[in-house]
Amino acid sequence: MAFTHKRWWFTLGMLLLILPLGACARSEAASRTRVVFWHEMTGPGQEQLKQFAKEFNASQSKYRVEPQFEGNYNEAVQKILHTHGTSASPAVFQSMDVSTSQLYHAKVATPMQHFIDADHYDINKISPVARAFYSQKDSQISMPFNTSQPVLYYNASLLKRLGIKAPPVDPSYSDITRVAKAISAKSHGKVKGLTVEEYGWLFEQFMANSNEHLANHEDGRTGIPTKVHLNTPGTQAAMKWVRENIKAGDFIDYGAGSQAESNEIAAFLAGKLGIFTQSSAYISQLLAGTKDELGITYYPHQDGKPRNGVAVGGASLWISNDKPKAVQQGAWEFVKYVMTAKAQAQWQAATGYLALNKDSQTQPILQKLYKQHPSAQVPSQQLATIKANTANSGVFMEGVIQERNLAQTAMAQIYNGTDINKALAVAEKGLNDSVANTNRANHYK
Amino acid sequence: MLQSLPRNSNSKDPGAQSAPVRLSTTAQWSKDNLYVAIFLGPSLLILSVFVFWPMIKTLYLSLFLTDNLGHASVFVGLNNYMSLFNNPAYLSSLGATLMYVIAVSVLTIILGMLLAVAAQQRLRGIRFFRTIFSSTMGISVSVAAIFWLFAFNPSVGVFAQISQALHLPEINWLADPHFALLAVIMTTVWMNLGFTFLILFGALQQLPASLFEAAEIAGVGKTTQFFKISLPLISPTLFFVLIVTLIDAFKSFGLIDLMTVGGPNNATNLLVYRVYQDAFLNGNYGLASTESVVLTAIIAVITLIQFKLLGKRVNY
User: Fold this and answer.
1) Smallest Cα–Cα separation from A123: which of A108, A151, A144?
2) According to the UniProt entry, where is the signal peptide (chain A) (predicted)?
């Protein structure tokens, strides 16, 4: 009896202690508008986003941004679509490049252009190539955020040791073939010259850089695509280039997917691979992993044809249209905050994604990085020198992931000896069938 | 009981006479029904919400094209099924899956059996080996995948270094369509081995020693003892292990996703992985549902055949 009494008093005491705390939390919450932010970043990206939210919350007293991790890009798209219109949906969210058309047609977001116009925001500060990817008919749909570019990496120290002249910063396929051949020959086959991952994104970039549209209606920028092309002079030239290196024994194939990426990086860092093409987002990992000097060039282009430039990869920020005006305004303030020159410079230094604000390049944190590793500047230079057109602004089409799977399979076939024409034609037919089904299912005319 | 009810064929109103009897049976029935409802209700409810309804919905979706929100939009009848069986990539997935499932089950059971027999020997330090043999049970798929990925790395992996040292031709395990499935099979068997070993070892340990003593006295050799005494006696366990491994192999997903993402050239694109790709990557829920229905049918048929064929030969 005495025991239960004691417990009762204890409980009451605890309650009395907790109540004022709860009241405090409530008054704090009531004075600020809650802005839920869904993202898909892990590792340093996630840490930096938390930091941004903290800084933003401390910088004003109207809004409170809450970052929430939602799994990988693909999972997040499904969650965004299926929670839309419920209380569980976010106020602002990050979504991957290839989901842009799907989210646009699902009408889940308030166009970013709306806030840009209302706020007289100077959008010209933001990289035009990155902007073009996430806009339709000159209107910004979402705000480009974590952005990478495909580039070519080479082991500069290895080339010096072997006495090989480094490739130019804007190389053609044959420039790279020459270096790859020299690496193989001078290392007596101990170091493989080159690899290009079986990866649909890299495949698209061969087309973009050759100024070719993958989908009709200018890659979907002037209408919903009804026909696609994967078997083009540009892709054939790229695949011939790879095949030439395979036949010469200077190429090594690591397959597809994240395992291929970790294997090629492991081999590169161990000095067993000389050159590879990959996303610029790997820079920090590569710089941290080796004492060798890292060389970086622009994405290679067809011989006898100037580069048209490659599209960006990564993701953008969207503002949901199912939240009250005040919440949407808070989301916009946060988007503006992460796009400032300082925040973008910090973002690039922390993650390897490229700073999109033009004024970021002169920020001390990036100046320091470039001084330490001059090649780290190359991806930003590539991005800054590309003139945006419909061929290098990404494919605005639903089912780009399907295209990547098909292109990836075609690459695997070609790398293993299937006729280039045949493999590409099969992929093209598969994609055309899938596009027809998608258009029919969504009642697109 | 109903047959024994008194019947009056002369009566113009048979219902009137038998009414009291029927009433009592009806009462009995409703009481029974009440118990049935109480005992089965909760599990039926849970099963119907989480199993039966999704199954019906999957069947339904398999007859439609789905829009960008995953909703059924255009009825296409059996077109999804037709397009599956006319798709060479799907047929090769089917072939790869069968090959994978058979190879994994057979190899797992043979190797597990060998280890279990070996671990039976009364040797110094055998406990250490028993622990090692069953240790893969405690390893998660992702750890196993990372470990094997490094082993298979064509530039710095163990296999590449061995073949370089011995001047053997280098095999690009995960990027060569001829070897990728083999590499995944090896990894899966290695993963499965711990569990299979433990179950089979447990079964062998439980066999009565007297049988083997009698066999020894009768001068029966070790090999004959194994095939004529041990194997038949542990056949129920073997059957259990076979079914579990087989169904598990059909459902393999993690290793594929982490090691090959279905490539190269769809060589390791097993049926479950294809369902995942079509649903959650390509957003093609209609086709993915069709593939799920086909997969379910295949597993059901194979399990049925197993019970019919093997069930008779198993000594319980």
Assistant:
1) A144
2) 1-25
Contact B177 A408 (CB under 8 A): no
Query: How many residues are given for chain A?
Result: 445
Chain B contact present for A412, CB below 8 A: yes
ipTM, 2 dp: 0.75
Measured CA to CA in angstroms, residue A134 lies from A202, A207, A330, B225 at distances of 19, 19, 21, 73
Structure confidence at residue A298 as a pLDDT band (50, 70, 90): very high
* Separation CA A300–CA A302 (nearest Å): 7
User: Tens digit of pLDDT for each residue in A341-394?
Assistant: 999 999 999 988 999 999 999 999 999 999 999 999 999 999 999 999 999 999
Per-residue pLDDT tens over the stretch A18-33 = 655 555 455 555 689 9
**Domains of chain A, residue spans:** 31-147+313-371, 150-311+398-441
User: What mean pLDDT value characterizes chain A?
Assistant: 91
B82 pLDDT exceeds 50? Answer: yes
pLDDT at A6: 65
CATH 3.40.50.150 fits A150-311+398-441, yes or no: no
Residue B195 DSSP code: H
Q: How many CB pairs under 8 A join A and B?
A: 125
- Select from B67, B180, B266 the Cβ nearest to the Cβ of A441: B67
The answer to whether residues B205 and A290 touch, using CB atoms and an 8 Å cutoff, is no
Q: Nearest C-alpha of chain A: how many angstroms from B259?
A: 6
Place of tokens 């405690």: B138
pLDDT of residue A355: 95
| Closest B-chain CA to A193 | B155
Q: Is B65 in Cβ contact with A412 (below 8 Å)?
A: no
Question: Selecting from 2.60.40.10, 3.40.190.10, 1.10.260.40, 2.60.40.1180, what CATH number does the domain A31-147+313-371 have?
Answer: 3.40.190.10
Question: Nearest by CB to A401, which of B74, B155, B281?
Answer: B281
